Amino acid sequence: MSKRRVTSVLAALAIAASVPVLAPAAPASAAAAAACSSYPSWVAGQWYAAGSIVRYTDGKAYVAEHDNPGYDPTISTWYWEPYACDNGPTNPSQGFVVSEAQFNQMFPNRSSFYTYAGLKAALSAYPAFANTGSDTVRRQEAAAFLANVNHETGGLVHVVEQNTANYPHYCDWSQPYGCPAGQAAYYGRGPIQLSWNFNYKAAGDALGIDLLNNPWLVQNDPAVAWKTGLWYWNTQSGPGSMTPHNAMVNGAGFGQTIRSINGSLECDGRNPAQVQSRVDAYQRFTQILGTTPGSNLYC
Asked: Chitin-binding type-3 domain: which residues (predicted)?
């Protein structure tokens, strides 16, 4: 499983205080749904109690799952969830191109931690994922993400990095925030094996979750784990020149997703067997999803 050092940090809202580990608030009843325009407009920096419903700048409604000081509903998805109004639910996960049966077919030996429900719950964090372009492109992107995830986790078997000797290495003390959870706390976790303190900080800031102080959420909460994978996929270019999401929706091809995830160790002939493993999974998954793999499969 690869470990990548991401130098680009996503500019996002900073977390003012630690996020308490709480049971998720019950979602607002669809029966109470009304026209989106009937809800007050969201205001940045205004305090919202759990259960508050606001209308965001995109015209959609969001309900606060947890008290928060005006975090952006489209970024801080731990605090906010899309709320049904006007034409029904706004959660894009309802139209996910991968069915649960197909997911199970892809990962017959997966850990029980990696639930399909957790993946669908994470989709609201990045609505453009597997929801951009033609039906073929959407299926190809879903297959590409899951193929790379398959490689990183041994078929969704491993939740945490297996080589414990590496654990103390992922703390960069030069960062101003240091490693408050402990030097050995930022080892690889989740579907794309998030590692290093600065990556936990960046992913947590983007998602509205304090992963710097509580990195264990990534191995304890399936939705959080999937969200960190989607964070990398949609916002980070790693050693590549584009995000994996952009590689798929702009036609660069599957090979560029490999480059963005672990190109410095695998691409340009460095480790063709690892590249082939990813390509094989991608071709298998596109077949399961009833589409073609497209071109430019290798990096």
From this structure: 39-83
Both tokens of 201, joined, read: 């900080």
Give the model confidence (pLDDT) of 136-177 as tens digits.
Answer: 999 999 999 999 999 999 999 999 999 999 999 999 999 999
**Helix residue ranges per DSSP H, 85-185:** 100-106, 116-122, 135-153
Instruction: Give the count of beta carbons closer than 10 Å to the beta carbon of residue 115.
Output: 18
How many other CB atoms are there within 10 angstroms of residue 157's CB atom? 14
pLDDT digits (tens, 9 = 90+) for 49-82: 777 788 887 777 787 777 888 898 878 877 887 7
Tell me the Ramachandran region of residue 53: left when phi exceeds 0, alpha when psi lies from -120 to 50, beta otherwise: beta
Confirm if 215 and 176 have CB atoms less than 8 A apart.
no
pTM: 0.70
Q: In what order do the strands lie in the sheet with 61-64?
A: 53-55, 61-64, 80-83
Please state whether beta strands 80-83 and 61-64 pair in parallel, antiparallel, or not at all (unpaired).
antiparallel
In the DSSP assignment, the letter for residue 176 is T
Residue 260, C-beta contacts closer than 8 angstroms, at least 6 positions apart: 236, 237, 238, 239, 240, 241, 242, 243, 244, 247
What are the chain's domains? 29-90 (2.10.10.20), 94-157+231-288 (1.10.530.10), 165-220 (3.30.20.10)
**Catalytic sites, residue numbers:** 152
119 close to 146: Cβ distance less than 8 angstroms: no
DSSP conformation letters of 192-210 = TTB-SHHHHHHHHHHHT--
Q: How far apart are CA 223 and CA 202, in angstroms?
A: 17
CA atoms within 13 A on the CB side of 203: 32
